[in-house]
Amino acid sequence: MTRYKELRQILADEIAAGKHAVGGRFPTEFELCDRFGVSRHTVREALRMLQDQGLLSRQAGAGTIVLARTRPTLYSQTLDSLDHLSDYAAETRFECSHEGFVTLRGALAETLGCAPGERWLRFAGLRRALTDDTAICWTEIFVAEPYAAIREQAAKETGSIYKLVVTRFGIEISEVEQRVSALAVPPEIAAALGIDAAAPALLTRRRYYANDAQTPFEITVSVHPGDRYSHTHRLKRGNGAGPS
Amino acid sequence: MTRYKELRQILADEIAAGKHAVGGRFPTEFELCDRFGVSRHTVREALRMLQDQGLLSRQAGAGTIVLARTRPTLYSQTLDSLDHLSDYAAETRFECSHEGFVTLRGALAETLGCAPGERWLRFAGLRRALTDDTAICWTEIFVAEPYAAIREQAAKETGSIYKLVVTRFGIEISEVEQRVSALAVPPEIAAALGIDAAAPALLTRRRYYANDAQTPFEITVSVHPGDRYSHTHRLKRGNGAGPS
DNA sequence: TGTTTCCAATTGTCCGGTCAATTACGCTTC
DNA sequence: GAAGCGTAATTGACCGGACAATTGGAAACA
Q1: Of A97, A223, B76, B239, which is the most buried if we count CB atoms within 10 A?
Q2: A85 interaction partners in chain B (CB closer than 8 Å)
Q3: How many CB atoms lie within 10 A of CB A115?
Q4: Of B106, B103, B146, B98, nearest in space to B123 by CA
Q5: Residue B97 pairs with which residues in a beta bridge?
Q6: Are A125 and A98 in contact (CB under 8 A)?
Q7: What value does the mean pLDDT of chain B take?
Q8: The three-state (H, E, C) secondary structure of chain B, written as one string
Q9: Which range is least confidently modeled, A136-150, A164-178, B42-56?
């Protein structure tokens, strides 16, 4: 065990024991140097780790304050790409059969979680497997009006529309909200998918947010027949940060 | 801009430009000291940041190697508590109506994703809202045989069984795998929930893994009628680590 | 009393150095 | 050719120091 790791352990234990009140001042670097007989470099290394773990906050001039008694245990799911949001990812193609502007009202506005009266550019169609052309799901894609200029290019696009918006307008997606619920397949969609009407299906809604926007720039809604699809994700326990 | 941040920027750009091959050796600390005319401390600070970002791997004796050209942009969902896996969280109580050992076979083994023949301790019943006693969902909880000793205490438990196992056996949950699919509600469950049979519903399966175990110690399966429930999660963009 | 100015405390940034731990690699040996 | 060994190279872990940047509060002032 190295010196700064010992130090980190001791200080973390003290914080956990409540010796240093949350919100209160933590001993200064020099005080800790004196107390443990180590150099400032070693103290800083220990403090940096405690800071990374979210236990301490440090600021020049203001000193070090205690943020929490124990490091929060977080469970997290991580994706290296939004493509992995769908299990099938890049193995499908979008076959657009409807395209045009719609004004949201009633059930549609509710489904999208938007105010009635808004105008969105809508693409709707089937998503098929690249290999055998099986119908995977019915998909509707709604693009906010300011980005409707992608309409022409969208005709040629068989992958993801959101990538078009992202590249064309230089957007960075900051957040995606995904909601999954169950519904009975409506007759029109059942016909398109070639299944019985009223069969159980997954309704997936994804809202894409750009940067710090309050409203999404794109919303997609998909209907997956129950027996062809399931949505899986793994949540792994991750400490605040860094190894112990 | 501080010196080590400049250094980090320069080196990150060089890596992105392909000047240092992925998998190849990166210049040593002393080489960088000479090249930029800074102390080893400054170089190490820059390298540490690049390491935190997942661009470099460093090991005493082996040197520094390039891991990736650009830092992977990760999207992640984080939970501070597993209770938030369900949107309803702590506002429900479990009303156990069946309890006992079962031997997995056929459809059940398939649903749980386990080998037929295994024995699990099973609890089944309704989960009701604390406030108005509305039936929220049908839940079945399967506990692996080694932990079946919690059976007596489970009778009194109305919250989460997994917590019982965790505290009783000193387990730390390292991972949870959640799968959501759609199904038509089976008649028996429909009757218990007071809804029409064959109505669409969400089937949620959660498998809880302890530490580094290969097999879960608990599996829960829930059936939520479609119109009473939806499963939501938000994925936020997070850089590899640390601020820029 | 309210505002400004200044100072001391604290962390941040950098420099210099030494020794230890780890690993790759060339050498010897069998 | 394979295995063991030793050495050099490299990163890790410390020490010491100096000055800059930031901040809170005290002192001076209007």
Answers
A1: A223
A2: 235
A3: 9
A4: B98
A5: none
A6: yes
A7: 86
A8: CCHHHHHHHHHHHHHHCCCCCCCCECCCHHHHHHHHCCCHHHHHHHHHHHHHCCCEEEECCCEEEECCCCCCCEEEEEECCHHHHCCCCCCEEEEEEEEEEEECCHHHHHHHCCCCCCEEEEEEEEEEECCCCCEEEEEEEEEEHHHHHHHHHHHHCCCCHHHHHHHHHCCCEEEEEEEEEEEECCHHHHHHHCCCCCCEEEEEEEEEEECCCCCCCEEEEEEEEHHHCCEEEEEEEECCCCCC
A9: A164-178
Nearest CA distance, B96 vs chain A (angstrom):
25
Contact B198, B163 (CB under 8 A): no
Amino acid in the structure at residue A61? G
Q: Å between A169 CA and D17 C1'?
A: 52
8 A C-beta contact, residue A164 and residue A157: yes
Q: Which of residues 43-102 of A touch B (CB under 8 A)?
A: 72-82, 85
Contact A165, A179 (CB under 8 A): no
What is the Cα–Cα distance from A224 to A230, expressed in whole angstroms?
Answer: 8
Measured distance CA(B178)–CA(B231) in Å, rounded = 11
Contact B79 A235 (CB under 8 A): yes
Alpha carbon separation from B126 to A236, B3, B91 (Å, rounded): 28, 62, 14
The two three-digit tokens of residue A35, written as one number: 């107390």
The answer to whether the C-beta of B230 is closer than 7 A to strand D is no
Which nucleotide is nearest to A62 if distance is taken from CA to C1'? D23
Proximity of residue B2 CB to strand D below 7 A: no
Q: Of A230, A235, A236, whose CA–CA distance to A86 is shortest?
A: A230
Amino acid at B228: R
Confidence (pLDDT) at A243: 38
Task: Produce one character per residue of A52-80: b if its CB has 16 or more CB atoms within 10 Å, e if not.
Answer: bbbbbbeeeeeebbbbbeebeebbbbbbe
Over the stretch A44-70, which tens digit does the pLDDT of each residue have? Answer: 999 999 998 889 999 999 999 999 998
Mean pLDDT of B164-182: 87
- Contact call for A77 and B77, based on CB within 8 A: yes
Q: Read off the pTM.
A: 0.75
- The β-bridge relationship of strands B63-66 and B218-225 is unpaired
Which tens digit of pLDDT belongs to each residue from B114-142?
888 899 999 999 988 877 788 888 999 99
Q: Which of A149-163, A211-225, B46-60, B122-136 has the highest mean pLDDT?
A: B46-60
Q: Report CA-CA distances (Å) from B91 to B87, B129, B131, B202, B205.
A: 9, 6, 8, 19, 20
